[in-house]
Amino acid sequence: MMSMNSKQAFSMHPILHEPKYAPLHSSSEAIRRACLPTPSLQGNIFAGFDETLLQRAEALAAVDIVTQKSHPFKPDATYHTMTTMTSMTGTPTSSASHLHHPSVLTSHHHAHHPHHHHHQTQGLEGDLLEHLSPGISLGGMPTAADVASGASHAHSHMAAAINHAQHHHHSHAQAVNVHHSHHALAAHASLAAAAGAAACDAEPDPRELEAFAERFKQRRIKLGVTQADVGSALANLKIPGVGCLSQSTICRFESLTLSHNNMVALKPILEAWLEEAERAQREKMAKPEIFSVGDKKRKRTSIAAPEKRSLEAYFAVQPRPSSEKIAAIAEKLDLKKNVVRVWFCNQRQKQKRMKFSATH
DNA sequence: ATGCATGAGAA
DNA sequence: TCTCATGCATA
């Protein structure tokens, strides 16, 4: 088995999004029912009705229900927790924190399906949910991460901006950019170089990526660093446009549960960290003097098993339900429309992840 | 390790 | 709105 080829063909563009400003957009909340014409689907038999589809899907779901059981839960189970962070122990299992969303690597694009719906009128709904802003924190570098941080110190700052694009003559564009807000730094250029490698850069080889991920994990563990440590330590590398990443992302990288593009974009960064960390460790070995020392809560809705099964059934029939269908499903399952919409989005994303996509 | 969520950017 | 990259909260 060695086939290589990424199936995603993206493209073209040399990228670059200019540091745009974030227009403010308020997140859309929910739109409730409206009347809508027709969900034009592409040759789908089940194209435009609702009840029938829903019932059918549920019937399918029912099959599982027999086999599996869980208790029916509240439709709106959201957990909130007050997070009190402040727990940094020496043990590797820490967490990282950062400022805003350091969103950052992007590349994508490929054109795909032309689907779209119509306008739905009205969208209002008093929603209880709102979002808040993050609290900042992160003061010093605690413990465990000497290696992680590559021994260098952090001046606590995040960077911000820039966006870098890489494109050669090929197809693939990777861009690492951070959203900046105010100032921007200069830009520069070497992402690939950071990898310290010879190659120019992108290698769409699932093989290579998989191998790297494996090695990465292995060496990371050997260094005694946790995924969270790696994530926060990335900021210390000061690679233009690269801030820190969460434990989640590192974990997903190692387990290949990221999109191909994302894997490709992250690889050079993590590779750079790895080298730096190993270098730092060697340095430390030399002199055993070591270290001196050492909100808003987001709510996570919990969709009960039965509802989840129904959603899966609907998804099997129609992965991209129209707004109206989403509303119908939401109502039927007694879930918020937005929850259902997000569920579908996440489901679609899952399908696209690497792991064993196919070409592999 | 993963589920659900947010946000930017592009349609 | 959707996709994508990411992250907080959780199990």
From TrEMBL:
<dbReference type="InterPro" id="IPR010982">
    <property type="entry name" value="Lambda_DNA-bd_dom_sf"/>
</dbReference>
<feature type="domain" description="Homeobox">
    <location>
        <begin position="294"/>
        <end position="354"/>
    </location>
</feature>
<dbReference type="Pfam" id="PF00157">
    <property type="entry name" value="Pou"/>
</dbReference>
<keyword id="KW-0805">Transcription regulation</keyword>
<dbReference type="GO" id="GO:0005634">
    <property type="term" value="C:nucleus"/>
</dbReference>
<keyword id="KW-0238">DNA-binding</keyword>
<feature type="DNA-binding region" description="Homeobox">
    <location>
        <begin position="296"/>
        <end position="355"/>
    </location>
</feature>
<keyword id="KW-0804">Transcription</keyword>
<dbReference type="InterPro" id="IPR013847">
    <property type="entry name" value="POU"/>
</dbReference>
<dbReference type="InterPro" id="IPR001356">
    <property type="entry name" value="HD"/>
</dbReference>
<dbReference type="GO" id="GO:0000981">
    <property type="term" value="F:DNA-binding transcription factor activity, RNA polymerase II-specific"/>
</dbReference>
<dbReference type="InterPro" id="IPR009057">
    <property type="entry name" value="Homeodomain-like_sf"/>
</dbReference>
<dbReference type="Pfam" id="PF00046">
    <property type="entry name" value="Homeodomain"/>
</dbReference>
<dbReference type="InterPro" id="IPR017970">
    <property type="entry name" value="Homeobox_CS"/>
</dbReference>
<dbReference type="InterPro" id="IPR050255">
    <property type="entry name" value="POU_domain_TF"/>
</dbReference>
<dbReference type="GO" id="GO:0000978">
    <property type="term" value="F:RNA polymerase II cis-regulatory region sequence-specific DNA binding"/>
</dbReference>
<feature type="domain" description="POU-specific">
    <location>
        <begin position="201"/>
        <end position="278"/>
    </location>
</feature>
<dbReference type="InterPro" id="IPR000327">
    <property type="entry name" value="POU_dom"/>
</dbReference>
<keyword id="KW-0371">Homeobox</keyword>
<comment type="similarity">
    <text>Belongs to the POU transcription factor family.</text>
</comment>
<keyword id="KW-0539">Nucleus</keyword>
<protein>
    <recommendedName>
        <fullName>POU domain protein</fullName>
    </recommendedName>
</protein>
<feature type="region of interest" description="Disordered">
    <location>
        <begin position="162"/>
        <end position="182"/>
    </location>
</feature>
